[in-house]
Amino acid sequence: MGLIAVLVAALAGFAVGAAWYMTLSRPWLAAAEIPCDDSGQPEGGFSPLPFIISGIAMLLVAGMMRHILAMAGIEGAGKSAMVGLGIGLFMITPWVAMNYAYGRRKPALTLLDGAYSVLGPTVIGLVLGLF
Fold it and tell me: Domain extents for the chain?
């Protein structure tokens, strides 16, 4: 049951990320300073590598979150979502912000990616709590 929970939670996190970045693709591309062609598509074409890395990352995050929840004895969708919210808000997003500050990335990119860094683990926690 644990493996299924992790797979479903990782898929949910990935799906929310897909929706997030498809909805905000134009501001994200501008904030990330990715050059685009006349049609608004990133120059250089499509690469599956970011999607593969994202899928692996979602599995790792969901697996570790399941472990944390189990070790802490946290059960239920609400409590698990709250743990995900805390992980995103107080662990992942500050790390993203720190790296982007050193990389002199635009604050808008920190906000866009940081917001998903909160939303993604929250959804993963919610799904894990449903199992």
Answer: 21-32+48-130
